[in-house]
Write a structure and sequence with these properties.
The chain has 202 residues and is mainly α. The protein has two domains: 7-56; 67-186, no CATH class. The chain is built from ten helices and two strands. A two-stranded antiparallel sheet has the order 1-2. The N and C termini lie far apart (102 Å).
């Protein structure tokens, strides 16, 4: 006879599963603790029990700077794609919750939705530069829609992240590379410059 598990027991199992997945993504103990309600001591015990090396996770405070998402062209494109994945998986935060204390939003339910979203994103873009905590920070920043947001590339119309305080119009990674290539091709080579100098002296 199967005995149904209580809601408390099921939630406890969910906490263990989420902690395992977050450790696999090398998430800092502070964020794992906020999402699973495990203490740092309990997380250290779980790492030893699961055979996870202590050097397999990041230490210190989670990143909060937003400049890393909007300055490099590749990061602008990756951030836009991640935002699209969040909408598909229903992870985007409502704007009225964006200014709530972050710790109150880092719930078990949010973590369970974030993990498959981030894993699907990494499966499509295995060379991505966004780790899990940067992705979480980006999702919160996009929900506030104050310093960074989503706009279209001025050249091709692709969606990219933008710095709302910057004067420069947004450009995606592909268009940025094309511009750099054009500038490089338009510059005269050193030999051509020497030839021009010799002709001028004549």
């Amino acid at each position: 006879m199967d005995i149904p598990a209580s809601d408390g027991a099921l939630r406890h199992i969910r906490r263990y599963r989420l902690a395992w997945r977050l450790m696999a993504h090398q998430v800092r103990a502070g964020m794992i603790s906020a999402m699973t309600s495990f203490s740092c001591h309990q997380l250290a015990t779980l790492r030893r029990r699961w055979g996870i090396a202590t050097n397999k996770h990041l230490r210190g405070r989670s990143p909060i700077s937003l400049s890393r998402y909007v300055r490099p062209p590749r990061a602008r494109s990756e951030g836009a794609v991640l935002a699209a994945f969040c909408r598909i998986y229903g992870v985007a935060l409502p704007r009225h919750l964006a200014h709530a204390p972050r710790k109150s939003l880092l719930t078990l339910e949010l973590g369970e939705r974030l993990c498959p979203t981030y894993e699907a994103f990494c499966a499509c873009f295995p060379q991505c530069t966004l780790d899990f905590e940067k992705a979480v920070n980006l999702i919160f920043a996009l929900a506030k829609d104050e310093l960074i947001g989503l706009e279209q590339c001025e050249s091709c119309g692709a969606t990219v992240l933008i710095d709302r305080l910057a004067r420069r119009k947004p450009v995606c990674e592909s268009c940025e590379q094309e511009r750099r290539l054009r500038r490089a091709l338009s510059r005269p080579s050193p030999r051509r410059r020497r030839d021009r100098g010799a002709d001028a002296r004549r």
